[in-house]
Amino acid sequence: MKKKIIHLILLSCKKATELIEKKSLFGLSWIEKTQLRLHTNVCDGCTIYQQQSILLDEAVKGQFKNDALKQRILSSLDNETGLYPGTDN
Amino acid sequence: MEPSMHTSGTTKTIRSWVLLYFDSLYSWAFYKTSSKESAEDLVQETFLVALKSFDKFEGRADPKSWLFGILRHKITDYHREKYRKQTIPLSEQPDHASENPDHASDRLLSTMFNADGEWNVPEKPQPWPEEAGHILDNPDFNQVLQDCLKKLPRSWFSAIQLKFMDEKKPAEVCQELGVTPTNYWQIIHRAKLQLRKCIQINWFNG
Question: RNA polymerase sigma factor 70 region 4 type domain location, by residue (chain B) (predicted)?
Answer without folding.
Answer: 144-195
